[in-house]
Structure formats: C-alpha cells, structure tokens
Amino acid sequence: MSVQVVLPGVLADLAGGDRHLDLDPEGGTLAAVLDEVAVRYPVLARRIRDEAGAVRRFVNVYVDGEDVRWQGGPATPVPDGAVVQVLPSVAGG
Amino acid sequence: MTDLLAIGTRKGLWLARSDDARRTWTLEGPHLLAQEVAAVSIDTRRPAPRLLAGVQYGHWGPTVTWSDDLGSSWHETDSGAIRFPEDAGAALGRVWQLQPDIAGRPDVVWAGCEPQSLWRSTDGGCSFTLVRGLWDHPHRPDWAPGAGGGAVHTVLPDPDTDRVTVAMSTGGVYVSDDGATGWAPRNRGISAVFMPEPAPEYGQCVHKVAVDAGDPHRMYAQNHFGVFRTDDGGGSWTSIAEGLPADFGFPVAASTSTPGTAWVVPLVADMQRVPPDGRLRVHRTRDAGRSWNEVGAGLPDGAWTAVLRDAFCTDDHDPAGLYVGTRDGCVYASADEGDTFTLVARHLPDVLVVRAARLP
After folding, report:
1. ipTM score
2. Which of A79, A89, B36, B358 has its Cα between 20 and 30 A from that of B269?
C-alpha cells in the first residue's frame, strides 16, 4: 500500500528537506506508518512519538483530515492512498 | 586561558567567555534556540572540550545533544541518547543532570532524569544505559513528583571509590557503594515536614547536594525545608541552618579547593519562594555550616526572583568563582568566592542551569 506523510516545515530537515514522504508501510495502521518513518528517519520519528510508542502530547496527527486521538490513536486505520499529516499543536509560550 | 560559562535557559543556551581572569565576560548565543536546556556539562576530560546539553523541545520531546566545537555544531544519536527499554514502560520526560565521572574514567558520564532514573554512558555522553539497580528499587513506587516533576537531579561520583550518591525530588538521597548496582537511602536526620511521619527512611524533598573539598564523605544538602550536613557519606545528617535568614532554597554549592566552604541562596519558604525582603544574596560558610555570612555585593535589591537548583555553580579556581542565574534571566559572576558579583547577562529567558570550566 502507499501512504503519504505530510510534515511541518520545522521537521523537514530531519527528512532530508522533504515535507512529503511517500511510504509503503507493512500494515494499515498509524503505528505501522510511523514504524516505517522510524526505519527511514529515526530522529524524525522520535520527534513524533516517544519510546513507549505514544504520540507526543503537543503533536497532532491526522489521517485524511481526522485527528487520530479520536480514531484509535496508534491503531487508527490508514487505508491505501491515505494522507497522514503531522502538525505541532497550538501550545507553548 | 579562557573561562567558559554555559547558561542553559528555558529557550536556549548561551555561552560566556572570559579571557582576563574572570573580570569581564563576553556573551554569545543563542544556541539551541527555542529549546529548553535544563542540563549542561562542560566535559574537559576529552582532547577537545565537549558540551553536553539535555534539551527539551516544546513539541518534539527531550533528548541529549553534544558539541565538540564549543557550540558551532550539535549532534545526537539516531535512536536518542536516553531511551527507556521497552520493559520499563516509561518514556523520558526531561534530562535534569549531566555529570561527567572522575578524570580517571574519561568516557563515563552520568545522567539524572525524569521520571526518577539514573543513566550511565561509557561513550562520553552519546548514549546511556539505564541503571537498573535504582530503577528496580522497591522504593520507586513511593517516590513522588515534586512541583517541578520527579527526577534524579544530583549525581555525585566519589573521586576515590565506586561509590555514587544521588538525590532526587522527591525521594531523598540514595547511595551505592558498588558502582551503582545496589542502592540504599541515606536520609536520617533530614526533615520531611510534608509527610505524616516525622523521620521517614526516604521520601525527603532534597533539592541539591554538594560535596566538601576536603572530604568526599562530608556533604551539604539544601532541603525543601532545612540545610543539612553529613560527615559520614549520608549516614546521618545534622541541621546547619542556624544563622541563615531562611532555610528554604534550591541550590547548594561547595568549593572545590577550600574545605569547609559552601554557599546557599536562601528563599522565603514555602509558598513565596523569593529572596528575603527582595534582596538576592548568597550566604557563605567557612566552617562547614557552623556559621554563615551574607555576601554578594553587586547582587540586586528589589529582586523578586528565584535561583533554581542548577542555576548556581562554582568553578575550580582558587579563589573559587561563583555563578548565579535567576528566573528573570540574569546571570552574575564572582571571582572572589562570592564577595562581589558582576553582571554577565540580563533579559535572557529563565535560567535553568549554569556550569563553568577552564578551557585548556
């Protein structure tokens, strides 16, 4: 299957400058997509998830526009052709 | 010769240099802009001095990064220097302490972290291994987070033996005599007024511990309430707070060359946490805490700020230098053991850590 991951500009350097990653994950869940990110770009993957596998508190991930927090978290289904968008949340000071 | 002062703040790292015996300082930075830098060390045991920084991105999590060219470039390992093993069921929250080991073990670096954990590196701080003896300690479920989070914030390797002393908030002081395998609490005599039992074995909110220059078994502790000294490696502690204007505070520092000399920065406890009467001052003992004198000419009045536990340090000159960073973004340096201070920086973000070293 084929999935596109869209990154915010501040993370693009960790993916060789690309903001759009075309991946072929071995599974149809968000966890499988992020595992594939970790294989190709391990430092980038650590910015999105901690070592226990949880998406970081102030990182928002959307699958085809839906926030994964309400779709099953790491188990969120990611169908063939989906767009997985990573965005920093509005937080900080 | 250059003296280097590393200043970690809530939004980056600044470096200050002095080439005239610590009389004037030149500030340079920011490095690691917009990253919280809660832990810094300047490791001078290597052919090139290594800066190690525990950083926390607001959104992207904590990690350890290092520079071997005094901040021009920074590096981290792909997998992350500090990473809980899967069976630990935990994730790194923040790096609170990066402590090079003794000179004879130049590749060993210790890290104290949140959640309460101790880590050991054998590659100069590029990667760390969890110290399982402390992580698996039966007391750990009872260690509680203080207001700032539950963390090992002090790591003190003994210069002559395999002893390692750590302090944590909250949990107190623990000592290992076998190179960090087995651990035992060493809190007898340290108060814990926030707990129902007056003298618990552990659970004290020790804010910082420093080792005396003349005896590694003599240590000073700034507690949440109280200032204490031990002469037997933590076997027992006695109050040395008499003569101080307040027994609350975060840091304590000790001279590396003059036995019996140490400093604290008193704050009014417990709900205020500001300098007494708004006068930011250092208090110094010359006799291991039997008496204290207020010092700090050049430190400000009208200062309703605080000095956090690692925003205070000495250097290894004789007479010692003393460095103070405040939560309102000022840094002051003294080249005369605290008698007089000059301003190094102001209007920085909150200062979380200062560390000083002589560069070859």
Report:
1. 0.89
2. B36
